[in-house]
Amino acid sequence: MHLPKAELHLHIEGTLEPELAFALAGRNGVVLPYADTEELRTAYLFDDLQSFLDLYYALMAVLRTEDDFAELADAYLARAAAQGVRHAEIFFDPQAHTDRGVPIGTVIEGLGRALERSEETHGISTQLIMCFLRDKSAESALETLEAAKPHLHRISAVGLDSAEVGHPPAKFREVYAAATALGLRKVAHAGEEGPPEYVREALDVLGVERIDHGLRCMEDPELVDRLVSERIPLTLCPLSNVRLRAVDVLEEHPLPAMMAAGLLCTVNSDDPAYFGGYVGDTFHAVHEALGLDREQLRTLARNSFEAAFLDHDEERRARYLSEVEAYAFD
Ligand SMILES: Nc1ncnc2[nH]cnc12
Ligand SMILES: [Zn+2]
């Protein structure tokens, strides 16, 4: 669906399509434990977040050089542009690469190279969000922030992702305080598999401005009231929630109830190479499965630009919002 939109919850490593994985494996002499792309695709049946993460981290072995990261990001941006994305705030997981010997500079400069020419090449403005892996230590997160310092001009925010349950946001209090002192914005995954309490902690202890997922806030009416009154954006990922079994089927996703409750919902693709669709496909899917009408889809698109970190460029935000209003559904 070509409705103009911002994508705010997208892991660049989660855009690694099987074809590119095999091409990079060949180039870099990495042997994958799958015969071909078809066999690899059969592994994309997940029971929960962890079963996905195991494959997601394993496949990253093919990403080694600056060119690899630039190619990965460029391929995503081309697909996103074809689905109406005008602005993308892109997550990356530096520790997943530094832990296997790829320097953080290789990752950031490779991604940065694709991102800096994105507006010209794809018509998409971009930002980069550096995520800490919450199943690693707080010290490792601090070391990662320190190692990223020569490249901070390329990074606008920090985030928190990976295995949620058992790794509450408060574990990362110190690194978020350090990121704040460096002028970085803050988001965190919370309430995907973890309890509503993690959403509260992300707001109160880490000071995040957006919640990634936030699905489980619906179990806690008081929290919903707070998210509504403070207009905290939620970056929801409905196709991801189905594939990782947070909801049984898309038809039962609480997105309509969340919108009706007044939450500032956005719709995103999370890891589109693994979950069956990019963000335009996701808009189409929620239209079909949940019956969201055109004005509700327009609201989701409007919300995406409202929730974007575009405060330094309100003129651009206004331009994107006017494109949403002007969009004529086929
Ligand atoms: N859906 C997700 N939740 C947590 N960490 C992730 N890393 C990539 N995708 C993720
Ligand atoms: Zn995510």
From TrEMBL:
InterPro entries: A_deaminase_dom, ADE, Ado/ade_deaminase, Metal_Hydrolase
UniProt remark on cofactor binding: Binds 1 zinc ion per subunit.
Pfam family, one: A_deaminase
Catalysed reactions, semicolon-separated: adenine + H2O + H(+) = hypoxanthine + NH4(+)
Domain of life: Bacteria
Key word Calcium present: no
EC number: 3.5.4.2
Family listed: Belongs to the metallo-dependent hydrolases superfamily. Adenosine and AMP deaminases family. Adenine deaminase type 2 subfamily.
The protein's role, per its UniProt record: Catalyzes the hydrolytic deamination of adenine to hypoxanthine. Plays an important role in the purine salvage pathway and in nitrogen catabolism.
Identification of the protein by name: Adenine deaminase
Organism field: Streptomyces clavifer
